[in-house]
Amino acid sequence: MEAQAVKSNLVLILDYGSQYTHLITRRIRSLSVFSLCISGTSSLKSITDLNPSVIILSGGPHSVHAQDAPCFPDGFVEYVEKTGIFVLGICYGFQLIVQKLGGQVAIGEKQEYGRMTIEVVKDYGGLFKGKNIGDKQVVWMSHGDEAVKLPAGFEVVARSEQGGVAAVANPGRRFYGLQYHPEVTHSPEGMELLRHFLFDICDVSAGWKMEDVMEEEIKVIKGMVGPDDHVICALSGGVDSTVAATLVHKAIGDRLHCIFVDNGLLRYKEQERVMGTFERDLHLPVTCVDASVQFLSELKGVTDPEKKRKIIGKEFISIFDAFAHDLEKKLGTKPSYLVQGTLYPDVIESCPPPGSGRTHSHTIKSHHNVGGLPKDMKLKLIEPLKLLFKDEVRELGRILDVPVAFLKRHPFPGPGLAVRIPGDVTQGNALEILRQVDEIFIQAIKEGGIYDEIWQAFAVFLPIKTTGVQGDQRTHSNAVALRAVTSQDGMTADWYYF
Ligand SMILES: Nc1ncnc2c1ncn2[C@@H]1O[C@H](COP(=O)(O)OP(=O)(O)OP(=O)(O)O)[C@@H](O)[C@H]1O
Question: Is the CB of 370 under 6 A from ligand 1?
């Protein structure tokens, strides 16, 4: 699919700070429609430049009556009406539409939170296509304010059990509104509604595919990197940097130069395993630097966790620095670009919690990825994954023939086993014991067929000693804790129940 075709089907989300905003973007992409999310207070120009077909105004923690309530820019309503853009407001976004188009929003008497039942009351505008008047469904509500008077031309198409307005439509002006959240799984029929809205009402076509993303990114990289330019990338053995490097390699071949550092804090046989994948399966040009002695001698005797991280960061920088200078000598020219595996959640703009005093919480994770290559190299960034979510990166990896087992690996922190050994990492044989325990634990989970159900499983070398029996002897030795958690996106986690 041509980039133009994707752009002409863009669903743009204006973010007003709801914790579910990213979910709307993901739900729409899961319908093979390209969706982007920008701040709800973006300028009109940044909205018109994107040329969206549909705009969704997200929910948010604010009241439309608050003095600093975020809102779309002046001229927004005129722009969408003139261009024929469809607009859907969700929760706060819906209340914004009501207030700005001449209706009235009041502090709700009903204040609906959690699971609610709504009923279709009118067949108008097609939001509830396939449903009959009187049909009920469970939805997720979370609002204090409520619409008490609708702007002219709007009709209520669904009401909550308590009589509150749950959904409205104004097909003539192409404005729609939902007081509930269709994007959360607690609204079981929410996806069906979004599907109807996009395909039946807005006539958007589904055609956004990861294959197209790959082709498009390769074109962009080829256009950006000149024929004599060289590019460097630090590979951790994790999914993000590996997929990013594989994509760039496909675009520019061996003008990409990767480095993988064995810092002495890696898992059992990690160096052999990841280098095998890089070289054998992906044919990536990778230099493996064994710097374990350097890292461990700097870490000797250090117990403070923050100090350990700083030392590890500094050592990484000095190794990357030496790598860049060696390359410069070898190539006769400085590398010009750096590949980073930055993902979309790192760059999305969103509103901060109310009362935080900030307009946006947006800061591109500056610590993200390497961030420590020599400043005098003035490297320009290549971030080919910056519009993708983690599961989309995995899909892209599959298309790029990154082995599936590799893509499904549990995440492993950059500072490695140093964060799993509280205290001095060089104490006795702590690293060796931890490597073995971790390997036995992970193998057992794999043999039990539950590795993919667990988001992350790991062992921690505890700084306490306990009494045990080995053979016929009593022992007094360190204990190791085992932990396994489940998570959707790494933002929150729960115990895994074995
Ligand atoms: N052992 C290593 N050798 C070379 N580079 C590394 C190493 N460990 C980390 N890095 C670099 O630092 C970045 C950040 O590491 P971190 O473990 O936080 O990764 P991440 O953001 O989860 O991404 P990834 O999935 O690529 O590991 C990596 O993407 C990689 O560029």
Answer: yes
